[in-house]
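User: Show me a protein chain along with its predicted structure.
Assistant: Here is one chain, sequence first, then structure tokens.
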Amino acid sequence: MSRPSRSEAEKAVRTLLRWLGENPDREGLRATPGRVARAYEEYFAGYRTDPIEYLRRTFREVDGYDELIVLRDISFESHCEHHLAPIIGKVQVGYLPDRKVVGISKLARVVETFAKRLQVQEAMTAQIANCINDVLKPKGVGVVVEGVHHCMTTRGIHKPGVAMMTSCLLGDFRSDPRTRAEFLNIIRRAPLPD
């Protein structure tokens, strides 16, 4: 499948504006097609990055550290693939290292890469966990995602204040009740002060 040009994308926005009953040539809308194309480049930047690359540089000099590593409250913005409506929320990521660790910003970059694609929250949760598991080969991985879906809150059933929770637990996070409980306890703690 060939990627349409920027000009074709802008023409598509003009078509949508006309379909809505608007005049894309009026002053307030003349620059809208270009703005929408630039916004989409930002919203969907995850198609241009490889999450595996973020996890390839690891550190082995950690003085034998082999306990849980948890990064809490990674904010994300995504878009549902069914309505192109925003999904906004937070991700909790934990892993149990096996002789190597990765810089914590890299975990947030993995979340960002998958979030900046058209998504279904369940798939995004599994993609984040599987990527960390496949590349780092830790003893276990846990990912919990909480998202507010605007396809449900601002259209359709119109139920604001509803958040969806999904989780993916792999390795020791799935098989060892103590590891799972420790991870879930850490991510339930009160938020850190700003």
